[in-house]
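Hi everyone, sorry if this is the wrong subforum. Our group has a chain we'd like a structural model of before ordering constructs, and none of us has done structure prediction before. Sequence below.
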Amino acid sequence: MSIKQLTVFVENRQGALVQITDLLAANHVDMRALSIADTQDFGILRLIVNDNDEALRVLQSGGFLVQATDVIAVKISDTPGKLSSALHALNVHGINVEYLYAFITRTARHAYVVLRVTDNDAASAVLEEAGFHMVSEEDIKKL
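Answer:
Right subforum, don't worry. Here is the predicted structure as tokens:
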């Protein structure tokens, strides 16, 4: 089970992130998870939002280069070692994790983690078999 992640290429200059967050806010797009990595000239902003189509539309119309990517998200009990258990399950099955980041959540009992892996379907099956709950697009809208 995969979900959509938006990747936005952001010029590394003052105010660039404000432009993006203002555009999303003005169009009622709520960010559920985000990660940013920077280079000398550009940043790579990864977003999970409540409305992918609207976010894609407003960001592109705002002049930003945006790409939609399939990733997976997993609900993990917020206890020591649970993330390690999920990663171990993937590792045992030869599934590489390219990167991961956490959701902004409203519960203290669980953490939600976005993972970019080589095979979303295989990773989802492995994690479900290991007792983890996969997060769907519908789940994201409810957060």
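For your construct planning: Helices lie at 16-26, 52-61, 82-92, 120-129, 137-142. The chain has a mean pLDDT of 90.
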